[in-house]
Amino acid sequence: MKTYIVGNWKMNLTIGESSIYLQKLLKRIKPAKGLEIAVAPSVIALQPLRMQIDKIKSKVKLAVQNFYHRDYGAYTGEVSIMQLRGLVDYAIIGHSERRYLFNETNKDIRQKVAAAIRNGITPILCIGETENEKSFGETVDVIKDQLNSGLSEIDAEDVKKVIIAYEPVWAISSNKGARLAAPDDVAESINTIREELKAIYGSAVAEEVAVLYGGSVNPNNAGAYLTIPGVNGLLIGGSSLISDHFIDIIETAKRVKG
Ligand code: 13P
Description:
The chain is α/β, with parallel strands linked by helices. The protein contains eleven helices and eight strands. Helix 1 (15-28) runs parallel beside helix 2 (46-55) and helix 6 packs across helix 8 (183-201). The longest helix is centred in the last third of the chain and has 19 residues, at 183-201. It starts with a strand and ends with a helix. It binds 1,3-dihydroxyacetonephosphate (13P). Residues 8, 95, 167, 172-174, 214-217, 235-239 line the site of 1,3-dihydroxyacetonephosphate.
């Protein structure tokens, strides 16, 4: 199983800033076997960054942060995953900022997962409970529900191409009062995800699905999250905007998982 270090830049960095960042990253990181590095810039920066990567044949991957589930048509302002083919390898889907700030429903999310698979792009399906759900003891139910509905159009063969990212909403640094998730709590949720994948697809298939952790990951805590059993990588917001921090986390992943 590969280890994935994915930087979600959210709505930050101009095209120029993205390009300078990438240049630094490409210069400083050495490819390591089994380690997959991806960044998700703003959609407008995807093409220039793609050219930068291709020019030096780097293995760094690009991810899109959002797209519309239909391939083409009269959908003013939208970008389809079909149009993103050749630009990205990964697509972040169901991020809590999309669910709660832009009212994306479980139906939207499962259609996007299916669209990504249909177009040969790896979905990174984000799931996780809110602060309220956690306080009502609903974490397990929320995880199972989001997992089942997000994957409801995906069969056992295709689910091996899906990456799940567990991001407890209350631990995401953009939230007021975000706090660090204790590795033990994360371990419990990762276990819930694995058990549910087993229940849906059987153990052999479930073991092939990569599961990432995201939520206030930084260079100091990355090692602790990466050593949780069943965690295959990290989805990083704030710390991925500082290239030195992102590179530090990549180095940690090499040490811990190498
Ligand atoms: P932070 O790392 O800033 O908490 O963001 C996590 C996230 O939302 C990644 O998708």
